[in-house]
Each structure stands twice: as structure tokens, then as C-alpha cells.
Amino acid sequence: MNDLSAPPAAALNRATIALKPLRERGQREVFCGLTSIIWLHRRLQDAFFLVVGSRTCAHLLQSAAGVMIFAEPRFATAILTDRDLAGMSDANDELDRICTTLLERRPEITTLFLVGSCPSEVIKLDLAKAAERLNTRVMPRVRVLNYSGSGIETTFTQGEDLALKSLTAFMPTTTEKQLLILGCLPDVVEDQFKRIFAALGIGPVTWLPARTARHLPGVGPNTQLLLAQPFNGETTRALIARGAQLIEAPYPLGATGSTAWFAAAAEAWGVERAHFRSVIDPLVDRARRSVSKYLPRLSAKRVTFLPDSQLEIPLARFLHQECGAELVEVGTPYLDRQTCQSDLDQLPSTALISEGQHLDRQLDRLRAAKPDLVVCGLGLANPLESEGFVTKWSIELLFSPIHGFDQAGDLAELFARPFDRRERLKV
Amino acid sequence: MQLSLWTYEGPPHVGAMRIATSMRGVHYVLHAPQGDTYADLLFTMIERRDQRPPVTYTTFQARDLGGDTAELLKTAVAEAFARHQPEVLLVGESCTAELIQDQAGALAASMNLPIPVVPLELPSYSKKENWGASETFYHLVRALLPATSTREPNATHRAAQPVRRPRANILGPTLLGFRCRDDVTEIRRLLDRLGVDVNVVAPLDATPANIRTLLDADFNIDLYPEISRTTCSWLKRAHGMPMTSVVPIGIGATRDFIEEVALLAGLDATALLDREQPGRSGMGASASRLAWYSRSVDSTYLTGKRVFIFADGTHAVAAARVAREELGFEVVGLGTYAREMARDVRDAAQKMGLEALISDDHLEVEDAIRAAAPDLVLGTQMERHIAKRLGVPCAVISSPIHVQDVPARFSPVMGFEGANVLFDSWIHPLMMGLEEHLLAMFREDFEFHGDATASHLGHGRPVVAAEPVAVVEAPAPQPGEPVWNGEAEAELKKIPFFVRGKARRNTEAFARERGLATISLETLYDAKAHFGR
Fold first, then answer.
1. Is A247 helix (H, G, I), strand (E, B) or coil?
2. Rounded CA gap, B280 and B276, in Å?
3. How far apart are CA B233 and CA A60, in angstroms?
4. N or C: which end of chain A has fewer CB within 10 A?
5. Least CA distance to A382: which residue of chain B?
6. Which residues of A touch B35 (CB under 8 A)?
7. At CB < 8 A and 24+ separation, what contacts does B265-270 make?
């Protein structure tokens, strides 16, 4: 079934890419893990995220998405004040008081995440203990969990990873053979994937996260683990420790990526090749047709990714392999080979892979290389546009349905739109 | 600990960023972990800035905490100096760096850079954004000016150079302030007509060199006290520079401002104020159209509209005066999130017989707005969301702002043109005069029903149906509370939706006071007679 995934030529790059990426340290223009709460709180409809932090954390949460989501959000910040720091009030008592108020106000909440921040970690506020203490009072109605979303330990999407990892401890053990999909996906994509797995005869399929935090899938020695997002490395390792077997595959982006992803699952399930073809080929065909519209705008375009969401490597694979783009630099906050190798293997050896960031030096490289498209965060997009660069802001790639066959065209369109816009504007 | 869902202000180092980013030739090294760069978005997205804020973040990580965070800071300072060549360097800490106590400012100062280094100590766990901006501006000015005056007292200062026009500094405007860019343009024009030259505008677009010439002015215009009052007061104390006290928002305040400036500058403002007489009618009654527009009969429907005001201190106080004296509204709530301005807002509220709401808890503000059942909310982007939820019209009058509050067109809120903008932007969300009457008359019209939006807003989209007006509409009957009978309930529905909540409240209060168990048609009309309009 291997012939379904990567074109053979790409395998040649395995050796070259295994070379060292450029590792940099310095100023980073990347969000911290708290930012993941913006989508996690929508996905887990019975959960509340309480950041224990500073006014900065609260301000970040309301500014990071670019807009305020003002439906009463299922997240909040317990802001540390001078009194907590000076020991005038016991931070643990204060936290208990706030959690109690919160749970009274929101009786529908059944899972409460205490989310650590930079300040809470620096003052060594033990949120694991706090969760344990609170659990003795609020279980079984509410389960209290904790994880860190601090900027000193996590970047952007790692927040999802650590939140999910905290859930794994409560996943029941099962010996049933199942396919476990890991990573938040938009509902529409999840539903499409469910239909495809059903058509292939793969099942049962379970999801982490499910749509609620209290209904967790099981995990065990007969669990086959397939990753839907590239940033859940810690959770992956926690699930492997519980017996799950990781199915290596590229991420389901574009026609090729999606094919390889489903093919990997099909192989693990021993799905007949002809049957696989009959289910997948029409989808591939449709995906290719939808992407082809945008190829004229994307092929041979030189692209640089600045580190942001950790999706950079799979997205670069898509742009290169399926849209014919040339990769100049692919920057990623950190390189997790266990979760990214399959996509990494298919990047051309000419691309500079960089890990971490020294912002000013990276911008120097960018200005020297003058790529046709820069994929970057919102803090940099307008300044780079004003320097004449065409940019695609990366957070949109995280907030839009881009996975799977039927989103392949949408994904290509997201990259093509800035070029389209340039052509339209005569001002 | 304080439970917070949304905040009106960011932490104080974001205030410092506002000063650094507003100016030119200033760079800010911020000792901070990964993630604090989110603040760049405020400038690049809300203000659509085409350059990165001049900020270098040290980006320390957990593994650095053992020892070399101080070294990281020194490297960042050295690199920032070499790369950006600023004229002045601000050095400070975000909330996390404050805890690790590297003494960032002192450390940077010890590096003997050939430029002024201004250490900023902004306590993140007790202070907020506006305070941080104010302190940063003050310390920057202190660092660039002599501590005591070499300056002649004001009168002799002018007499020494009799041929020139009086000169003023405009202090206070910053990025992420409300319409600062356009207010500066408008106030410059006004001063020019008055015969006053502008010496320096700061922080917005100022350089450190400009700051060094602040003392060349005769007096200071404290345009945005949240940011500039501390600095203006020091310039007055240490250098004998007089300062203005009126913020020229609205016609009345603009007239007062002109008089105050004329007095400080020793000028005659008669020519400018000649036609600016309260009580005059007609298009020529003022340099602002607001005066006549407000007197024109079309505006009668604005009379006594209930308005709730919540903003920063400066804009809240100014809006209350405009609402009451220049549009004929009734102010039913006045408050601010800016504790530093609490006294000003309390004074203004007291004059209107109100108790000011001083709070940075938006849930408390929401409760207050709901209880006041206003016809219009004037607030920040937080109140815009609250008003949307309550189904009440709203105009934004102050920071915190959203991208849509930074319009492309010229739209100041200060001076005479600013008053025009206020008239337009506050009146627009309201139902227009005759339409409101027609709505009240023909409630049964299927297309023209009470839940329809004003015809000049949107295109008949069922905005109201989508809003949870139900909050106001159908409170769960409480035991012991008066109950509406069917007839009265049906009659209530004939009242336009935007006043229905108030009618319901008033009638229920009326029934409770009289111990009535049931609200009938009679009770409804008795209550109407009792409360008036």
C-alpha cells in the first residue's frame, strides 16, 4: 500500500532532510500555549478553561484571535494580584474561592481545566495539587484537570497537546481494536472522515478530543493511533505508553496527503486494495479538480513559512508536492520528528528547515531571499505587506477547515487568495 | 485573585508599548517570555500599522530561569541597540519578568550605552495599561529634560521674544487611543485659527529630539489626561508651564477650551467665539453643525432619550456633557473603568444626580446597563458587545477599540468638526424621528413590525429576532411578583421593542409598589401616566 502515499523520488530526500535543521534561539514572534484555548473551549462543550495568570494572559486571550468572541466564553483568567504575590492572601484559598464561584455560575460545566501560565509557574503555584484538592470537593459532578499553557514552556498549539495529554489519564483502558484519531478537527471535517472510514469498513473510530471532555474514548494495546494534527506529540507519547500503536502517515492535507493518511489506516485494517480505490479514487479526483483551479497562481511560487502553528511542515509538503510551489525556508517553532517525519521526508532538500526563531535574523534571510509568499503570524503580516511581500496569515489556516479531500481546494485557495487580491487591486 | 473574562485595559507594559510605538527613534526592550508578542497585533491589526512595533522581546524560557535570563536581557539590549540605532532606549519587564527580578532597567543602564536608557518599573500585578502609558511618557520626558527649570517664568519667557506667536505643546495622543490621529489635526487647526503655534505633539509621531524642546512652548495642552496629566503636572511644577484643564469634546467644551487657551496665550478669542453663543439658532449658530442640527425640529425625537455612558475617564465625562447639554438626552448611567480618573467621573456624575459606576468588571457594567434600560449606550467595544446582546443601540466613544473604530476617513471627536462627528455617530444607531412614530402607530403591519430594525440600518434583516432580547422580554415569574394578564401582555407587545423593556420594568415596579398581584391593561396605563414618557 506504500505506493499510495509518497512518490518514490521523495524518499531520496530522507537522508538529506535528516540533516540538521537550522536551530535558532532569540526573539520569538509566536503565541504561547494559552492561545489554544480559543478553539479548545468551543470544541469541548462541557469544559471550562480557567487560566491562572496575570492581566497579560487575559489580554492575550481576548486579543490573540484578532476579534473578541463575546458569547459568554467558556474560559476566563484568575488574575494574580499583589496580594497573592505578597502572601497577604493564600493563593490556594483564592483559587478555591474562584473555582467555586465559577462552577456555581456555570452548572453545565463538567470539566474544569486549571491552566498554568508563566507567572503561576514562576511562583510555583502547584495546580496539580489544586486540582486534586478541588476534585475531592466537586467530583463527580465536575472533574478538575490541570495543564500548562505557559509561554516559558509551550508555544501556541502545544496548548492543545498538553490539554489533551491531561485528559489521557482519565481514558479508560480498552482491549477492543479501534482507530483513535488525535487532534481537534472542525466538526464538518470530522463528519466527512467518519463517512469515509465507514465506507472503507474501518472501525470503530474514536476521537480525542471528543465533543465533550467527559466522554473520553478508551485506549489500550489494540488501539491504532492516527494523528490528525502535527502538534500533539506529548499526547501521542502518553497514548503510546498506554499501549496504542502509532500509524505513521503524512497529515491529511490535500489529495495526496489525505490519500496517504487514509491508506495508512486502511493498511492497518487490511482493507482490500480494490475497495480502497473504489472509495478513495472519486474523492481524490474531486480534490484534484478543486485544487487545479488554483495551480496557476501557486505553481513555481517561492514560499517561506515563519514559525507559528506547527502546521508548517505538512503545509509546506502540500504546497510543494501538490501545488508545485518552491520552498525557500520552512520555519517551525520546534521539530518533533515522531509526529512530522512522514511529511518532512517529502520536502525537497533545497528547502531550509529552521527550528526555533531569532526573529531579526530570520527577517534578514527573508529580505535577502525575497520569496513570492510569506506565511506568517498577524504581528508580522501587515509590516511585511508594506515592505512589498505577499503574505498569508497562518492563524487562518488553523481556524479554517483545511483537512481532507473536500477541503483541499479551500486550502489551496487560502494560499492563492493573496495573489488574487494583488491582481485585482489597482490602487 | 480576580476572576476576569474580558479586560478593559491590558497590563502596564502594553501602555509602555503604546508610547514607544507612537514615537519615532525610541526602542523598547521588554524582558518577557514567548507569547507576550501578542501585543504586536494590537498595533499591526487594530491600528493596521505597517511596521512592527519597535519592541525587542527577550523571549526567555523555562530552562533559562536557573541563571542566565539576565544575560539574555543584556544580549537583547546590545542587539537592539546595534540593529535599530534608537535615540532612546526604554527597558522594562512584563509580568513574568517582574517575578524573576533581574532588575532589567538597572542592568541595561549599567551597560553604558551612548544613548539615554530609561528604566521602567511598571508593577504588573497592581497597575494597568493607561497608567503604564502615563508613567512611561513621564519617565521618558524626565530623562530628556532637566530636572529643574532653566526656563524663565511664563510672562517673561514670552516678552523676551515678542515677535512670535504663542506656542503650545499638545500632549497625550497615542496609538490605540480613541481617534487621536484626527483629534490632533483638528486641534492644530483650531489653535492656528486662534493664533497659537504648535511646538511639539507628543507622544504621537514625536522624536526624542522633539521632547527635548518641550520647554520652548509657553504652555501645555493636556489633551488626554489619562496619558499626559502626570507629565503636564510635572512640567507645571518643575518648569512653571501652565496647562489646560478642558478637553475640547463637544461644542460647549470646545468653546471653553478656546477661552482657556486664549487666556493662557494672552490672546483675544472674540473673533472665534463671536457667533458661538449658546441659544442661537440657525445654520450659522456655531462653527459646528451640531448646534443647529440639534435645534432643528427633526431632532425633537431625541428629547430625553435615555443614554448610558461607560468609557475611559476623559471621554465619559465629555460624553455626558454633550449628551445632556447638546443633544437633549437624559444621562441614566455614567461610569469608567479608569480608576485613575474616578474622581473626575464621580464629580461629573454627581452633577447629574447619578452615582458613578467605577469598575473594570464588564459583568457589573452589563448588569448596570440592563437595570438602567437605556435607549442608547455610549461605550467602548466591550459595551458594544453588551448592547448587542441586550438589543440596545450603541456607539463607541472610547478605547478599548476594535479595528472598525479606526476609520479611514477624517473623523475627530474633538473641536467643532469633532462635534459634527459625535452628532452623526451617536444619532445614527437610533430610530429616525418619524419612523419611530409610524412604528408606534401601525404595529400590526407585517413588514413594519416592532421587531424590525430601523430602515436606514441594514436591509430589513431580522437583527432583533436573532438577538437574545428574551432576556428582557420574558423574565421567569418570581413568586410574589405581579403577573401580567393576557390582555396587558398583548398590549405590551405593541410598544416598540427598544422601549418595551423599560415599560415592562416600570409597570412591574408600579404594581409592586401598590401591592398588585396582577397587571392588567389599567395597571399598564396607570403606570404609563405615573412615569410619563
1. coil
2. 8
3. 33
4. C
5. B50
6. 30-35, 60, 118, 150-151
7. B265/B166, B265/B168, B265/B194, B265/B195, B265/B196, B265/B218, B265/B219, B266/B158, B266/B166, B267/B166, B267/B194, B267/B195, B267/B196, B269/B194
Written in H, E and C, the secondary structure of A167-193 is: HHCCCCECCCCEEEEECCCCHHHHHHH
> Looking at the predicted structure, is the pLDDT value of residue A322 above 50?
yes
The closest CB to that of A379, out of B37, B60, B381, belongs to B37
Query: Is A381 an interface residue toward B (CB < 8 Å)?
Result: yes
- Of B62, B479, B45, the C-alpha closest to A382 is B45
What is the chain A residue with the closest CA to B387? A70
pLDDT digits (tens, 9 = 90+) for A395-418: 889 889 999 999 999 999 999 999
B388 and B394 in contact (C-beta within 8 Å)?
A: yes
B445 flagged as catalytic: no
At residue A331, the 3 state secondary structure works out as strand
* Of A406-420, B222-236, B378-392, B465-479, the least confident: B465-479
Q: Using CA atoms, how far apart are residues B382 and A289, in angstroms rounded to an integer? A: 45
CB contact under 8 A, A59 and B45: no
Q: What does residue B450 show for φ and ψ, rounded to 5 degrees? A: -65, -20
What sections of A46-143 are H helices per DSSP?
55-64, 82-85, 91-105, 118-122, 127-138
B531: its cell numbers:
412615569
**So what's the pLDDT on residue A4?**
43
Least Cα distance to B357 among B370, B338, B376 occurs for B338
Q: Residue B99: pLDDT above 90?
A: yes
According to the model, what pLDDT value does residue A11 have? Answer: 43
Are A376 and A393 contacting, i.e. CB atoms less than 8 angstroms apart?
yes
Give B529's contacts (C-beta < 8 A, 6+ positions apart).
Answer: none
**Confidence band for B280, pLDDT divided at 50, 70 and 90:** confident
Residue type, B204: L
When pLDDT is averaged across residues A158-184 and rounded to a whole number, the result is 97
Q: What is the DSSP letter of A272?
A: -
The 3-state DSSP class for residue A16 equals helix
The answer on pLDDT for B467 being more than 70 is no
Give me B95's grid cell. 509580568
The distance in angstroms from the start CA to the end CA of chain B is: 44
Instruction: Determine the Cα angle at A168 with ends A165 and A170, to 5°.
Output: 135
Q: What is the mean pLDDT of residues B13-26?
A: 98
Start-end of H helices in B304-360: 313-321, 342-351
Joined grid coordinates for residue A64:
490573540
| Separation of alpha carbons A365 and A56, rounded Å | 31
Across the range A205-212, mean pLDDT stands at 94
What is the residue type of B415?
Answer: G
Terminal alpha carbon distance of chain A: 52
For residue A90, the chain B residue with the least C-alpha distance is: B1
Task: Find the farthest-apart pair of alpha carbons in chain B and give their distance in angstroms, rounded.
Answer: 82
Average confidence (pLDDT) over B306-328: 97
The CA dihedral of A162, A167, A168, A170, to the nearest 10 degrees, is 150
C-alpha closest to that of A95 among A82, A74, A77:
A77
> Left (φ > 0), alpha (ψ -120 to 50) or beta: where does B195 sit?
left
**Do the Cβ atoms of B56 and A84 come within 8 Å?**
no
A386 touching B (Cβ < 8 Å): yes
Chain A 34-63, CB below 8 Å of chain B: which residues? 34-35, 52, 54-56, 58-60, 62-63
Name the most confidently modeled range: B141-155, B309-323, B469-483.
B309-323
In degrees and rounded to multiples of 5, residue B262 shows phi and psi of: -60, -40
The residue count of chain B comes to 533
Q: Is pLDDT of B469 > 50?
A: no
User: Kindly report the CA angle at B255 between B250 and B260, in degrees rounded to 5?
Assistant: 120
